[in-house]
Amino acid sequence: MSAGSAWAQDDAPPHPAHIHTGTCDDLGDIVAPLANVAELTAGEVFGAADAILVKESETTVELSLSDILAAPHAVNIHQSAEAIQIYIACGDIGGRVVGGELLIGLQEIDGSGYNGVAILQTADPNTDVTVYLADNEAGAEPEQAATAPADPTTTTAPAAPAEATEAPAAEETAEPAAAAPSGQELAVDIRDFAFSPDPIEIASGDTITWTNQDEVPHTTTAEDRDVLQSGAIAPGSSISQVFDQAGEFPYFCEFHPNMTGTIVVQ
Predict the structure, then answer these.
(1) Closest CA to 62 of 31, 90, 20
(2) Which of 61, 136, 139, 182 is the most exposed place for a label (fewest CB within 10 A)?
(3) Cα four-point dihedral sign 142, 144, 149, 153
(4) What are 19-36's pLDDT values in tens digits?
(5) What is the four-CA torsion angle of 200, 205, 206, 208, rounded to 10 degrees?
(6) Residue 131 CB contacts under 8 Å (≥ 6 apart), including other chains
(7) Confidence of residue 150 (pLDDT cuts 50, 70, 90)
(8) pLDDT in tens, 214-246
(9) Annotated domain spans of the chain
(10) Dihedral Cα 102, 86, 134, 218, nearest 10 deg
(11) Chain centroid to CA 129: how far?
(12) Which fold would CATH assign to domain 185-265?
């Protein structure tokens, strides 16, 4: 058996993965982070050079399989640490358990082209979770087809100047909107795997700026992701967001779910 000589490398970054409460249609809190799903690098490669490569993740989580199955849970895969807010594959946890082992399917999300399987194996009091993910090339075709109709719309671009004549009226309404951010800007440090201050109380219209003082990426993700979902915040970087809606909003770091905080908008 001879090793293959020309194998395409997957340039996509590793994919963060988690076990959430809830279902893929209604994801809840992260209860167990999983190791990043990444391309295998060990061993030699053999066979067809155009074979679809499989990415893998292996994690032992501190939850028993019976506890996971006692309530709705799902395995969710993200595009990358930088695009943590984009989900590419997900699978609800459930099915037949044979010999302490449960296999579930991972379906692609929004035409990502990624699907796979996850294996949950009893290792009392823990559970071994193995994720296999493949980039299905056929999944890219619908996206290409979807973008094709966009070409005719670009041919109408020369007509745009006629609509642009209405811009002066829009500018008049834009000025009051620009004046709206008259609230204060408050700072939250992300340091030593904690948010400080916590909780943080602000008035409606105020801005919060989070700065990552740690040496690893973090996120600021509200339980209601429509309220706040920062994506990865690199070490030394900051993100800011204005809050106009009154209420109390718990949030956490998707990479480190034990990092939690609360925003109180009055």
Answers:
(1) 31
(2) 182
(3) positive
(4) 999 999 998 888 888 999
(5) 70
(6) 17, 34, 37, 56, 57, 58, 75, 77, 106, 116, 117, 118
(7) very low
(8) 988 899 999 888 899 888 898 999 999 999 999
(9) 15-140, 185-265
(10) -80
(11) 19
(12) Immunoglobulin-like (2.60.40)
